[in-house]
Amino acid sequence: MSSGNLRAGIFVATMTGLAEMCGEEIEDALGAAGIESDRHVMDGLDTNSLGDYNMLIIVSSTYGHGEIPDNGITLFEGLEAGVDLSGKSYALFALGDRTYADTFCAAGDRWDAVLSACGATRVVDIERHDASSGTLAEDVAGEWAARWAASFV
After folding, report:
1. Range of 66's domain?
2. Structural domains counted in the chain
3. Taking the model in full, what pTM does it have?
């Protein structure tokens, strides 16, 4: 897919705002690669918000016991109810903390499962950022997006 017909939507599920900072870095990396994108915090969004994009990029933290952040619940539940995303590609940047081994990046895994079940195709391995790794999530997010975005140009 060339960037000429690629329109990416970056959708952010966050509790503290860190995932939103990651989304900003991903948006910058895509722009540098020549890919048009729009970034949306998931507050109040439903599955209709996905329609304009053929590439979906989900940036999601995990909180509690592997839960989707509150602002992403409506969109997530809409996807769980079933929507046809065949023909759409997606990439996933998950935030978590390995000190919570049982639920590390569990929300990211849940997004992956629901997008796949709706017929979307993941185009790059899930990037799982570990809050206890000593790296800044937003730096890792930008570098991750820059690595694969070049292959779509």
Report:
1. 3-152
2. 1
3. 0.94
